[in-house]
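To: structure desk
From: M.T.
Subject: fold request, one chain
Message: Could you run this one when you get a chance? Sequence is below, nothing fancy, just the single chain.
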Amino acid sequence: MKIKYFTAFFFLTVLNVFSQEWKQNFKIVEPVRATDNDFGFSVVTYDGYAAYGADQVDIGDVENAGKVYIAKQDCDGWTIYQELSQPDARNYCGFGSVLFMEGKILAIVGCDPSVSQGNAVYMYERDTSGQYIFTQKITRDENSLLDNYGSKIAISENFMVVGSSYNSTDNNLNNYLENAGAAYIFFKGTDGVWTLVQKIVASDRERRDTFGNSVAIYKNTIVVGAVDEGTNWAGAAYVFEKNNGSNTWKETKKLIAYDFRGLQDRFGEIVKVNENGIMVSAQSEDDYDSNLSGDGGGPLTMLGSVYIFNKNVDGEWVGNQKIRASDGSAKIFNFGNQMDVYEDRIAVRATEYEYDKTGNLSKVFGRVYMFQKGVNGNWTESQIVQSNVKRNSDWFAGSISLFKDDLFIGAFWDALDANGQNYIGYAGTVYIFNTYNYVSTKKPVLNTIPVLISCADLGNGFSSHFDMSSIEKDLIENPEDFVFSYKDQLGNNLVSPLPTNYSNKYPYNEKISVRVGNKNNPSCYEETKLELSTISSVSLNAIPELKECDYSGTGYATFDLSKINSLLVDNASLYDFSYYDYNKNDISIFINESYKNTVKNHEEITVNVTEKSTSCTAKTKIVLNVSNVGVACEIIDDYDIPKFFTPNGDGVNDLWGINGLESKKYTLYIYDRYGMLLKTFSNNSGWDGSYLGKPLPASDYWFHIVFENGIDKRGHFALKR
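Reply: Done. Structure tokens follow.
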């Protein structure tokens, strides 16, 4: 027998208000539809993955065992690829009645067969292949029946809160108060195991408050709803906070409606918390005038509202805004019976009644109001979301999940398939709305990128200039049509696009994972890896400082740089060279010519050497020193001056000259003993002992040699006959 808890019928359509319109792109149904399965009774999505609960699916002979379907966004939209069920399920187990997804973790509420009429939370974690693997069964810490353990679940980082709205004991498992309610806080340790760290209850707990009917957590803040709290069951929400480094949570604030606490308002029906505050729905709140609602209208029974709280400058939670349906009326009410938030967006469900001509209720629909936070901090209604074809009593938005641009809406009593045909009562469906039109896409085809090589200019296998300037164009045509994301080899996110000059994070060899997704459907993607490799930089030989003499006293001299290239490396033809003076002017054209220093007395010129085959570069400096005339500029006597010669025509010592001056420039003067100039020459042709064509007699003669740098030398030699 199927048990139904709802008697209303519901529907869908999209009303465009703001530019970022939510559009129905998909209607998802169970792979094998069956009557009364309640597909979509719960729904949750997170970062390209989704889970659909069908809590009344029969499995074999087990009635209402329940099942959860896992879907992933891909090139075809959203594809169901895995089914989860409870192996030891019993009748009416309701596996999948409550879902929560955070990162790779999926929490599912189902029955606990070991406890009569008790529940447990079943933990799953997604592995590298995308499969959700069962990791742990989390049960109650006490033996209490019908405590509604798992009424709601919330997870943030390594903490999980589980509501138990009919629990009757306090945090020490004492002081019985019927259905006062409680919540359990679990912590996931480094071993991956969830452990109970604390049971929390309201500081002013009373009988039948149903504390724990809704729970929420964000970082160090937990919010717990107690929808029946108060003498008139107006409801409340309790805030618990903890200090960093501690696992102990303390109640810091009790939140109530700050304008009027009406009878059975159900304040705390749904609680949410994120970086933009605490949101508390009161689905049955009557529309009494409120200076915070600003509508100025009279009372409308069960219109519903959502209260938004923020911390003031003193760190205390205070009411900031109250939001309602823009078209709230006697026909549109229960605003807040479902709600989800994501960053600066809120999705709130309300109920719509339609009456026939005689005034009798004929149809019931669901609708979702979308709110956006503005730059002024206020929340504004942006759109009313309904299905493209409204259906009576389908429980549209009986479940809601919002993540980025994905809005999942369950309609667990919808009876038609994805094409609006093949009626099967209460089979259920899930609608997916997005802020973009879905375009059928194909998986990107990526080009193969060869290993990227760069020189380890930073040393120890690190480079500062892997060229990524064209990597996206190299990967795929029309890169502007795609979204690129990058992760390092440990799975850490990298900036996108990558820096033009990328510095590797891991020495010598590094692999970067690249995901390329279609802009209109980022989950339609292909992945590849970029491989980076560093090579050693160019090794240069040391060049001693170059010295030249300045005989004019100006501090400048001419240097020969033509041999520098071959001195720096073994095979200069394999490299490119560029030279820069002290002022960073390019002087490369002078390397095969003479270069005159541009800085007086001392200059350092820079040489950049680039290996042609690898583009590896190295830099060095060459020191040029200029000296004035003095000891440092003297020419070493490495030449031979003959003491005599015998110009007698026998072919031996017939000419007088200085040996060893072939590579030097000089002028040589020959004189007789009276100082008469006999011969002048500047090459190594020698003197034959004659003057004006006549042989001179044997005697002593004098020479004067003057080198180009101004140094001279004098002496004498003998002519023998």
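Reply (cont.): DSSP finds two helices and 50 strands in the chain. Let me know if you need anything else for the meeting.
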